[in-house]
Design brief:
Domain Nudix hydrolase: 9-175
GO molecular function: hydrolase activity
InterPro entries: NUDIX_hydrolase-like_dom_sf, NUDIX_hydrolase_dom
CATH class of the largest domain: Alpha Beta
Keywords: Hydrolase
Number of domains: 2
Organism: Nakamurella multipartita (strain ATCC 700099 / DSM 44233 / CIP 104796 / JCM 9543 / NBRC 105858 / Y-104)
Distance between the termini: 24 Å
Helix content: 10-25%
Length: 183
């Protein structure tokens, strides 16, 4: 349910405050609901695919160091296209699963069109893919993923890891909830 009577702020102008090959930061000048003006920063980053590889009552996870939070993070495999590349969303999901875990899947199901992880400041979205009928193989990781660890955990262990704060990645937790909600 969306309230149509509340009007969004009016954008008076925009400028790119920062850009690198992976993201840009846009600064918008807005007229707010009370008539005052202000600025709003938006991180613009390409969408990505998140994959839930499920088999035998559990999930395949990857763990890697996440610089932004200063610690290692257990997550479902996920990632975006290399700079300058693009393609079909399912192709991206297949590529990321193979790259990070070495797994290929015989069955793919997209659980949702597009979710957003940080709606307050980032335009990036992601699609959640459920991968089953898994076949192992060697991973083909990028240089930035050299520290990545791949592990299989039972669903009970996965739930315990969430409850104990070992899994703290919000897209991973949301994807799991979505999987159990849609069946």
């Amino acid at each position: 349910m969306v309230s149509e009577s509340i009007q969004p702020p009016v954008r008076l102008g925009t400028r790119v405050a920062y850009r690198n090959p992976w993201l840009s930061v846009r600064e918008d000048t807005l007229v707010l609901a009370d008539g005052s003006t202000g600025i709003y920063g938006v991180v613009e980053k390409a969408d990505y695919a998140l994959i839930i590889p499920e088999e035998n009552g559990g999930f395949h996870l990857v763990e890697q160091f996440r610089h932004a939070v200063g610690r290692r993070s257990w997550e479902f495999p996920m990632g975006g296209w290399a700079v300058g590349k693009s393609g079909d969303p399912e192709q991206l999901a297949r590529q990321e699963l193979l790259e990070e875990t070495g797994l290929t899947a015989g069955q793919w199901r997209c659980l949702t069109g597009r979710l957003h992880g940080s709606t307050g400041f980032c335009s990036q979205g992601f699609a959640v893919w459920h991968a089953t009928e898994l076949t192992p193989g060697p991973p083909d990781r990028e240089l930035t993923e050299a520290d990545m660890v791949h592990a299989f955990v039972t669903e009970d262990e996965f739930r315990r890891m969430i409850a104990d704060g070992e899994i703290f990645d919000a897209p991973t937790i949301a994807a799991y909830g979505l999987l159990r909600m849609v069946g």
